[in-house]
Fold each of these.
Amino acid sequence: MELVQETLRYLGARGDVPESLRREASETARTLQRALSPRYVYRLFPLRPDGDGFRLDGAGLSLYGNSVCTMLSDCDEAALLLCTLGAGFDSRLRALQARDMSKAVILDACGSAFVEEGCDTAERELSARFPRRFLTDRFSPGYGDVLLSLQRDICALLDASRRLGVCVTDSMTLNPAKSVTAIIGLSDRPQRARIRGCACCAMRETCTLRKSGANCRL
Amino acid sequence: MNFPFWTPGEPLLLDGAMGTVLQERGLPPGGQPELLNLSDPELIFDVHRDYVDAGSRVVYANTFGANAHKLRKSGKSVGEVISAGIGIAKRAAQGRAAVALDIGPLGELLEPMGTLSFEDAYQLFREMAVAGAEAGADLAVIETMTDLYETKAALLAVKENTALPVFVTMSFDETGRTFTGCTVASMARTLEGLGADAVGLNCSTGPDRMSPLLRELSENTRLPVIAKPNAGLPDPVTGRYDLSPDAFAEALRPCLDCVSIVGGCCGTSPEYIRKLSALLSEPRGRAPRPVQLPPFVCTPVAPCRIDGVRVIGERINPTGKKRFQQALLENDLDYILDVAVTQEDAGADILDVNVGFPGVDEVSMLPRVVKKLQSAVALPLQLDSSNPDALEAGLRVYNGKAAVNSVNGNPEVMERILPVVKKYGAAVVGLTLDKNGIPKTARERIAIAERILQTALSYGIPKEDIWIDCLTLTVSAQQEQAAETLQAVRYVREVLGLQTVLGVSNISFGLPNRGLIARTFLTQAMQCGLTLPILNPNQRDMMDAVSAYRVLSGEDAQCRAYIGRFADADAPANTPAPGGPATIRDAIAKGLQAEAAKLAKDALQERPELSIVEQELIPALDSVGEAYGQGRAFLPQLLSAAQAAQAVFEVLRASLAERGGASVRKGTLLVATVQGDIHDIGKNIVKTVLENYGYEVIDLGRDVPPEKIVEAVTERNVRLVGLSALMTTTLPAMEETVRQLKALPSPPVVWVGGAVVTPEYAARMGADYYARDAKASAEIAKKVFG
C-alpha cells in the first residue's frame, strides 16, 4: 500500500484525504501493478579520479561538478541505472485522458511513484549482489549541478533504446514519460545520506510538491 | 523476391552481432559504430569477413543507425556513411555472400508516443533506402524494431523507393509484446499485408525464450520466418551474454522446423555463426506452412481475429447527426474521439470511420481522424469512404491492418479502390450491388459477391481479407427483402466461405419498437452466418443479443463473457439514485456526470442554455475551485467537477446544434506546450478546466514551435495564449514564443506555467501572467474575457 501513499503524495493530497480519492488511488495502483512492471537495466563501471571529477573506466565518460565529487568521494565504482514503465504506461495514460481527466491525473501520479519503486528494487538487487559494499544515495541528472545532458550519455551506455525502448529528446527529456536515469556510487565504507531532501535539490525553487508543503523524499 | 546466394524456401544463414563484437575488440559502448565506416573501415571489414568465413550468406552492412536524425551531430551525411558501409561489406563478401542495407530504429519515438511524425520518419528512412540501393545493396533488412508504426514507415520507404527485397524483424520480450505493446500476430499480419518478403524476431532475448514466439509467428504468416536472437541475457556487471556458441545453436535447433532464416544478434560472434552453419547443414523436416490465414484486422496492441461474431461500431458517421456534422466542420476532433471511446468502452471490436460531409475535405480529414483515434483508442478501424484518395491517405497513416468499407460490383469502383486495398494490406467490404442498384433476389446478390471475390483475388488480395455485405433493406418498405438478405448471407458464409458484413439498424426504420425488430433480425442474421454486424454498440440490448449468441454458438467458452456481462445486472446503470443531487450545481460539485447531464436536460425545458451556464455551471466550478485553492479539495476532484460540467455543456451544445443556435462559448483561447517539451498532461489539465468554464480552447498540442503558435494566433485572432514548459532546457523556447507573440501588431495576452516556471521567470520573459495551476489559469481567463 506504499504505492497508494506515494500516489497521494504526488497528487499533493495531504491532511484529510477524502475516502473516495483514497479508494480511487488504491484501485489505480492495483490496476497498474497488474498491467505492467517497472523494468530496469544497470551497469557497473570502475571510477578513476580525473581532475575535478571521475572517469568511468571503459565507458568513455567522465562526471564532473560539486555534487558528483561529494557523492562519489569515497567510491571506486559507480552503477548507471535506467528504470522505466515503458510506452505501455504512456498509452494507458493517453487513453485515460480521453476518457476521464480526473482518473488520468491519479494514474499519472501513480506512475511517478511506481517508477521510483522500480528504482528501489534495482537498488536492492545491486545491494544484494554486493553485500559487503555500501551504496550512496541514488542521484539523477538535474539534481544539484549534475548535468542534465548526462541523460543522453547514460542512455547510450546502457543501450537504452534497444534494451528498454527509452529515447532521449534534444531537450534531454526521457521518453516514455515515466523513465528515470540515476547514478549510484559503491564504496567499501558506509555512505551517509546526502542528496535526499529539498536543500540539495536543483528543483527547490519551482517544485510543486515543495510549494504545496510536501516533498518527494528523494 | 530475388537476391544472390539464396533460393526462397531454402535455409539461409545470416551474420551475427556487429556492435558487441566491436566492443569485444576494444570499442567503448554507446558510441556511433556507423562512423567507423569512414574512420576505421578495416575494423568493420574484418568483422564482415570473419562472418563470411564462418558461413554467413548475408552480411548486414554497418548502417543500422545511419539515419539523418542520429548522424546530425556527426558532420557526416547519410549518403557517405551508407555508401562506405555497403562498400566495405561488399568488399568483405567478395562474391561469397549477399550484402544487406541494415535499417534500425531512428532513435526518436514516433507520434503519438513522441512527436516525430509518420511522414518525417518515412523521409528519414527513404534517404537511407535510396542511399543503400545506389551503393549496391542486394537487399534491405529492417531490424530491432519495437514500434510497428515506425516499421511501417521504413517498409514503405524501401518498397516505394527501391526494388530491394525486404526482411523485417522486430524485437519482442518474453511476454510476447514489443516495448510499445505490439503483438506477434499484429506484426505478422500487418507486415505481410504491406509486402515484406520475410518476417521474424531479433534481439531482446536468447533463442530459448524466443522459441514459442517464433512458432506463433510462423502460424500467422505465409512468409519465411527469421530468427536472430541474442546470445542469452547480458550480465549487468560485466555486460557479457550468458549463452555459449554451442548452447546458442542447441537452443535454436527445435525452432528450425518453422524458421528458415537464422543468425545472431547482441552477444554473438563468428563462432556462433559457425555453429549455426553446422546446424543448418543437418537434414530436417519442416512444419507445414499456412496457406490461408484466419480473417484478421488489428492495431499493434489489439489483434482482432475474426473467428466468431465481431461487432463493428457505426457511430463515427455524420449522416443524420447534427452534432457530429458540427464537430467535423469545426475540426473538433476531440468530439470524434469521444464518440470512438464510448463505443470501445461499450464493447465494439472494430470501429467504422466515416467523415464524408459537404464542406469537409475527406482526403485531409480522414488521416487526421485516424491519427487522433489511434492516439487513445486501441480498436482496429474500418475506413469508410468511396474516395480512393481519402482511403489511401487514411490507410497510409493507419497503424496496423485496417478494413476498407467499401467496393461494390461495379468494375470501375473496384478498379479504383482495390489497388489501394492491396497496397496497404487491408481487408475490404464488398457491397452486393452494382450499376443497376441493389438486386431483388439473393441469387443475383450472390452473383455479385462472386464477381467481387474473383476480382479482388485477381488483385492479389487474399481470400480472408474479402468481406461481403449482402445489404439490409427496410422491412416496412420491402418486407420480402429481409429473407432474401438472410439467404444471401448464408450462401456467402457457407459456400463462398467469406466473412459477412451487415448494417443492422436500417431494418426497422418506420416501425414502432424499432429495437425489437433490429435485435430479432440481428439474431436471425448471426444464425445465418453474419460475422461482422455493423451496429450501435451503445444500445445495450443489441450488444446483449451478440453476447447471448456467442454463448449459444459455443464461441463464449464456459459462458464466461456472458456471465461477466450480467454479473452486476441488478445494479442500476447510470440512473440517478433517489435522494441524489437535486441541482445541477450540486451534481457538478460532486462530479456526477450522468446526473448533471440529466438535470441539465430537464432544466432545458424551462430555461435557455446561457442561463444554465451562468447560474449553475460557473458558480459550481467556482466553489470547487475555491475549495481546491484552500487545499480542501484536490486535483482529481477539481477535474471530476470539470468533467461533470463538460457533460452539461455537451447537453447544451447538442441542444443548440439541433436548433442551429449560436455557440455558448465565452471566448477563444489557445494553449500549447512549448517546443522541445513532449509531456503535456499539465497543459491538458488546464484545457479540461477552461473548456468547462465555457471557453473555446484551441489546443496546439506539445512540442510546438513558436512560429506555429504565432501563425495560429494571427489566423484565428486569438486574444489569450497559455504556454507550458516542463524542463529548464525548454524555457528558452517559451521565452522566444513570448517574444514573437509580443512583437505582433496587436499582441495577445500571454500566461505561462509549468513545472520549471516561476513568477519571476514569467515577468522576466515578458508574459502578462503566471499561473501556478489550472484554477489560477481559469481566473486569468475570467480577467481577460470578463
Amino acid sequence: MSEALDVFTRIAVSLGAMFFLAGTVGLLRFPDTLSRLHALTKADNLGLGLIVLGLLPQVAWPFGALKLVLVWVLVLAASAASSQLVARKVRGGKDRS
Amino acid sequence: MREFYLLAGVFILLTVAVGLTRVLLGPRGADRMMAAQLLGSGGIAAMLLTAAGLESAAALDVALTFALLAAVAAVAFTKSSGRAARTEED
Amino acid sequence: MNAVYGLFAGLSALLLVVAGFAVVTRRHFAAVVGFTAFGLLLSLAWVALAAPDVALTEAAVGGGVTGVLLLSASVQMRAKMEVLPSWGVRFIAAVLAAIVTAGLMLVVLMLPDEAPTLAPAAKESLAFTGMGNPATAVLMAYRALDTMLEKVVLLLALVAVWSLGRDHFWGGRPDFDFSTQTSGPLLLLARVLVPVGVLVGIYLFWVGADEPGGAFAGGALIAAMGLLAFFAGVARPPLVGSGWLRWAVVAGIAVFLIVGFGGFWGAGDFLAYPDGLAKPVIVVIEVAMTLSIALTLVLLVVGPPGRRP
C-alpha cells in the first residue's frame, strides 16, 4: 500500500514540477502580458496543487495535511485576487513603469 | 524518496529563478510583478518539498507563513507599481 | 545525502545570483523584488541548515513588513528624488561595503574547527523553564534582559520615525501611500486572508514554547495582516495620538519590567522567575510582547503622521 502511495507521490510531484517549468517558459516566451498571466496562473494553481496533492499521503495526519491544504488554498486566493489586479492594470492601459 | 523530494525542490527553485529575468525584461510593471509571484509560489513549493525531504515539521509552518505573506507582497507590488505609474504621468 | 548537497549547491548559487541582482539593478522596484526573493531563498537555506527558528523569523519579517517598507520607500524616492548620489559618494559606499565583506570573510575563515558551544548547558536546564524549544528558553529565560532591550530598541525606532512628522500633523493618522483606492478582489482577499493570518500568527506565538515560532515571528505575521487590511481599505492606520495605541505599544516592555522588578521579592533577582511559575510568567510576557511587536512594526511601516488629527 505504501509503495503504491510512494509511486503516486512521485507522479504527482513530477507533474507539478512540470507545470512550474511550463509556467516559467510561458512567462518568458509568450508574446503579451495577458498570455503571460495565463501561464503564471497554471504554475500557481496546478503546479502547487499537484505538489500538495502528492505530499498529502506523506505528512502527519490530520494537522500536517490540514496545513498543506491550507497553504494551497491561501496561494489560490492570493493568486486569484492579484491576477485580477494585474489584469485590470493592464487593461486600464495606464501602467508603463 | 527523500532524495527525490529535495531534487524536485531544487529543480523548481532553479526553474522559477530563471523566470526572474522577466523582472529585468519587463516591459510593464505587471510583467515584473508576475515573475516575483512565480518565484513566491515556486519557493513555497520548494519549501514544502524540503519539509518532506528533511522531515522537518516546522518547515511546514514556514511555508504557511510564506503563503500568507506572498499575498501581502503581491498586493503591495501591484499597488506600488500603480502609484509609480501615476506619479510619472503627473 | 547527495541530494542534500545538491540543495545546498543550488541554494548557494541562487543566493549569490539574486543578491548580485538586487545590488546591481538600477530599478528600485526590481531591487525590492530581488531583496524579497533573497529573503525567501535565505529562509529556505536556514531550513536546509536545520535552523527552522531562524527561517521562520526571516520569513515573517523579511517577506512581509520589510518588503512593504522598502516598496513604500522606493515609491517615495521616485516621487521626490530623481537625482542619483554623486560618483564620490557611491565610490566611498562601495569601498566601505567591500571592507565589511572582506572582514566578514576573514572572520569566517578564522573560525575554530570545533565551534565553542553552550548548547549542552542550555539543554540541561530546559525542564526548569517549562519550555520545550531551546531557542525560546534562551530568549525568554537565560537572556531575557537582551530580549527586553531588543523591544526597547524597537520602541526607540518608532520614536525616531514619529519625530520625522511635521508639528501640525502630530496626533493625526499616518498618510500611508498605498491606501488610496480599493477594489472587489482586494476586499475579498483582505476579508479571507486577514483572519486566517492573525490566527496563524497567534498559533506561531503559542507553539513557540515547544516548537519553532515565538513572539517575534507571530507579531511580524500579524503586522503584515494589518498592512493588508490597510491596502484593501477595510481598516485605517490609527491616530498616532490615541491613548490605547501608546499603551499597547509599551505593553511588552511594561510587563517585562513589572516581572523584572517583581523578581526581586519573588525570586531574589531582577528578571528572575519564581520557582515553578516560569512557564505561566513567560506566557504572560509573550502575549504582551506579541501585541507590542505587531503594533510597533505596523506603525514603523506606515510612517510618521501625515494628516491633521
